[in-house]
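Minutes, project check-in
Item: structure for the 186-residue chain
Input as provided by the requester:
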Amino acid sequence: MREKTQLSLDLDKPCNHFELRLEDGVARGKHLTGGKITLYSEIWVDGRHIDEPHFIDLPLLVQSLHEQRWFEIFTCGCGVGGCAGIVEGIQVTHHTGLVQWSFRRPQSAGNLLDPALSDWEKTAVPVVLVFERTQMVKAIEDYLDTVRVLVGTDPSRFMWPVHGTSIRYVLNIDPNHPFSEIRGED
């Protein structure tokens, strides 16, 4: 049974450190789907991988820097968190220069029609993480720079794992702006 602990952070104490990384092996072409390299991402906090086995919705992650609400940052490959059994997503709130995530782990209850959902509601561990917004923006910018270098001039060799998000779209993301302002493919 999972130990019930709450990872929490007092807003007066130092913030958590956010990283967005390409999954190990992506740069070496280990993740092929239909002959294309799939750019799987991982979120790391304080040097530890948040081991949710779900895809990262990068546009929603960026939007969460600009808006307070529930976000399905972890999602299914189809782009709908509920399909992966994700019940609540992440509640994002902003404080002066800070981004706070409140959620329960694991994110997924499995099949939402299964009795496991009630078990999840009883056993999922509450988590609160607080990040400096500027540090998150820089981490996402660094991640996007890594993707741009990897993709180079041939984005047709790569694919994004979340349906509806193209590599060209990802290459245009600027975390300083809401994703609604991102220019799409020409």
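Outcome recorded: Residues 133-151 form the longest helix (19 residues).
No further action items on this chain.
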